[in-house]
């Protein structure tokens, strides 16, 4: 009986692995290969691919190191081997692939895996990382893989420092990571969350001035967006989710639990103070989803269902429109045509 049970467990694991692998073979290229001319900022990535060395030369002194020199170098090298139209798809692949692997790794069962995958399609922060802010998405994908594979927190901190030269938002993640997981690793987690709240509030207040001081081109972009009004819907939803995960999240994986909640505190603290909060959450949201689907109790299904229903309603009402440069009706027609072409291959 014991042998049969072990065999049955192994058999189910193999079936689940085959199902997830088949989904991945279809899903990853389906998302990654969506046309460049659908999405906001893709034209900028084509410019990067064409003119990386020229763009690098326009920065002087220390400002070069705060304007993604490694990302410019990657573009320069990729352009030697690939058509420039392909390069944005390569960047998109990094996060789509890494997130899919992380989802498969952390999901408690195959149902939670599929619920997490559906959520990733419906949540604008996740879609934006995969399809629009490709520079940050690529860096986030590398971070996910290092988070999965590397046990040494000092090495992960070194990876984050490296990623800051792909996207400057990772300077913030680097600082918060070394403080929380190296210097203050022994501090009580409740105290740690309070310290993160204070630190993030301070960083948020001075973020625009710091960006402009160091010559980050994002500084001017963020300054222009300071007057953009913010609704409180997302804040309320993720505040409730943060409380739920704090109380009921999987604590056995200490690093995932703490990083996800610290990330939520960073996002919620910065939400009304600075426009970089959304950029921060583009990198945090994959880990929040990993934690959310890592348990499979009744209350977990209930919370996942609530989040799914909210974002499904928003999606059906066009929450994805801000990611596009084409009209909503045109987008629907082109998407259906893309689906027919993709699955007819």
Describe what you observe in this structure.
The longest helix is centred in the N-terminal third of the chain and has 31 residues, at 2-32. α4 packs parallel to α7 (134-149) and α4 (87-106) runs parallel beside α14 (276-292). This protein has 345 residues and is mostly helical. The chain starts with a helix and ends with a helix. It contains 16 helices and no strands.
In helices, the fraction of residues equals over 70%
Please identify the structural class as seen in this structure: mainly alpha
Number of strands: 0
Count of DSSP helices? Answer: 16
From the spread of the alpha carbons, the general shape counts as globular
The Cα radius of gyration reads 20 Å
How many strands, which pairing sense, and closed or not: the largest β-sheet? none
Average pLDDT: 87
N-to-C series of helices and strands: HHHHHHHHHHHHHHHH
The N- and C-terminal alpha carbons lie at a distance of: 46 Å
Question: Low-confidence runs (pLDDT<50, min 5 residues)?
Answer: 1-7, 219-229
Strand content bin: under 5%
Oligomer designation = single chain
Topology:
Layout: H1 2-32, H2 42-57, H3 69-78, H4 87-106, H5 110-122, H6 124-131, H7 134-149, H8 153-163, H9 170-183, H10 189-213, H11 217-224, H12 233-248, H13 254-270, H14 276-292, H15 298-316, H16 328-343
Helix pairs in contact: 1-4, 2-3, 4-5, 4-7, 4-14, 5-15, 6-7, 6-14, 7-8, 7-14, 8-9, 10-11, 10-13, 12-13, 13-14
Summarize the structure.
Helix content is 74%, strand content 0%. The chain is mainly α and 345 residues long.
């Amino acid at each position: 009986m014991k042998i049969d049970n072990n065999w049955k467990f192994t058999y189910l694991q193999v079936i689940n692995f085959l199902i997830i692998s088949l989904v991945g073979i279809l899903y990853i290229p389906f998302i990654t290969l969506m046309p460049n001319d659908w999405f906001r900022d893709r034209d900028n990535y084509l410019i990067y691919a064409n003119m990386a060395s020229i763009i690098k030369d326009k920065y002087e002194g220390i400002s070069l190191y705060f304007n993604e020199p490694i990302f410019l170098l990657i573009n320069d090298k990729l352009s030697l081997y690939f058509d420039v139209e392909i390069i944005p798809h390569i960047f998109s692949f990094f996060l789509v692939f890494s997130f899919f692997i992380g989802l498969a790794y952390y999901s408690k069962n195959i149902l939670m895996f599929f619920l997490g995958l559906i959520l990733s399609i419906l949540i604008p922060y996740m879609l934006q990382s995969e399809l629009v802010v490709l520079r940050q998405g690529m860096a986030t994908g590398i971070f996910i893989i290092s988070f999965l594979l590397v046990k040494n927190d000092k090495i992960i901190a070194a990876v984050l420092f490296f990623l800051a030269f792909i996207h400057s938002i990772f300077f913030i993640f680097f600082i918060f990571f070394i403080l929380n997981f190296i210097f203050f690793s022994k501090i009580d987690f409740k105290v740690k969350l309070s310290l993160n709240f204070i630190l993030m509030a301070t960083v948020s207040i001075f973020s625009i001035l710091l960006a402009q001081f160091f010559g980050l081109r994002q500084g001017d972009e963020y300054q222009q967006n300071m007057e953009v009004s913010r609704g409180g819907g997302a804040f309320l939803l993720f505040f409730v989710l943060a409380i739920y995960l704090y109380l009921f999240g999987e604590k056995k994986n200490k690093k995932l639990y703490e990083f996800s909640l610290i990330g939520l505190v960073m996002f919620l603290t910065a939400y009304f103070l600075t426009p970089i909060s959304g950029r921060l959450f583009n990198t945090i949201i994959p880990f929040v989803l990993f934690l959310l689907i890592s348990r499979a109790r009744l209350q977990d299904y209930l919370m996942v269902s609530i989040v799914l229903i909210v974002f499904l309603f928003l999606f059906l009402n066009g929450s994805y429109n801000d990611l596009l440069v084409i009209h909503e009706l045109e987008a629907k027609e082109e998407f259906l045509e893309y689906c027919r072409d993709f699955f007819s291959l």
